[in-house]
Amino acid sequence: MRWKVNNLTRGKLLADRAERASSFMDRFMGLMGRRSLAFGEGMHIVPCNSIHTFFMRIPIDVAFLDPDGLIVKQIPAMPPWRLSSVYFKAHSVLELPAGTLAGSQTQEGDKLLFEPVDPAAGQTAPE
């Protein structure tokens, strides 16, 4: 399933084709090995409070979220082969193409909303 991610605080769309990684293997693999991440794509890792970019080929924007979807920490353009700190207030992480957070003026404290997208209709599905 894909997810649409909106920054409610700024009224900006961050992703319309985000994936969710919730199994151990999906969380472990994340975006490793991808050659690119197009604007509109992303990865929501649940549960998660620390990430690495080992074996990645591209920098990514990272937003650490509390259980209510508030950004508790963000890392713009995190380069490959890095390890983040552990953010104990974080419940999940949203990984986006580098430049997405700055381009949308997203800040720590902003609230994000995740809505499932119906792949058949290409539109947001009711929850």
- In the CATH hierarchy, the third-tier topology is known as Jelly Rolls
Main pleated-sheet profile? 8 strands, mixed
The side-by-side strand order for the widest beta sheet comes to 5-4-6-3-2-1-7-8
Please give the oligomerization state of what you see.
Answer: single chain
* Low-confidence region ranges: none
> Outline, from the CA principal axes?
globular
What is the H-and-E element order?
A: EEHEEEEHEE
Could you tell me the strand content as a percent range? 35-45%
Per DSSP, the total helix count is 2
Helix content: under 10%
What key phrases describe this protein's structure?
8 strands; 127 residues; 40% strand; Jelly Rolls; 8-stranded mixed sheet; 8% helix; mainly beta; globular
Description:
It is a single chain. With about 130 residues, the protein is mainly β. It has two helices and eight strands, in the order E-E-H-E-E-E-E-H-E-E. It has helices at about 25-30, 100-105; strands at about 1-5, 10-20, 40-45, 60-65, 70-80, 90-95, 110-120, 125. Strands 5-4-6-3-2-1-7-8 form an eight-stranded mixed sheet. The model has no long low-confidence stretch (mean pLDDT about 90).
Q: Helices, strands, pairings?
A:
Blueprint: E1 2-7, E2 12-21, H1 24-29, E3 40-45, E4 60-65, E5 71-78, E6 92-97, H2 100-103, E7 112-118, E8 123-124
Parallel strand pairs: 2-3
Antiparallel strand pairs: 1-2, 1-7, 3-6, 4-5, 4-6, 7-8
